[in-house]
Amino acid sequence: MQRLDILLNGAVIDKETHSFSNQIMGLLMEKYGFKQDSLDMLITHLAMAHQRIKSKSKENPVLDADSIAEMSSHHLFEEAKKIWAEISALSDIEYPENEIEFMTAHLINLLDGE
Q: How far is residue 8's CA from residue 35's CA, in Å, rounded to a whole number?
């Protein structure tokens, strides 16, 4: 993915994060049939979150309470959570709740748009 290459070449992410993000993109395309262009935002966020956590960044993006409530009641919420569990199981990083919420929101948007 070109965005990941740009992040790697700009030293925003490291090679391990680049490789992991590409692995997840391949999984989502093969197992769930998502198109690469629809994965751009999710994979970019995943790469940035992965790198933030690895480098112990103080940056801590959060979703507002209304967005979390809306996401939690969405009919695709449980399916998105299952996909996230599969993704996170492939990582050696423990993701904080705020990053899980963002990734779940991205997955709901993907599932809703496919």
A: 22
DSSP string for residues in 8-72 = HHTTSS-HHHHHHHHHHHHHHHHHH---HHHHHHHHHHHHHHHHHHHTT-S------HHHHHHHH
CA gap 13, 50 in Å, rounded: 9
Sign (positive/negative) of CA torsion 27, 108, 104, 77? negative
Residue 1, both tokens:
């993915």
pLDDT at 114 over 70: no
pTM, 2 dp: 0.90
Other CB atoms within 10 Å distance of the CB of residue 12? 14
Residue 23 has pLDDT above 90, yes or no: yes
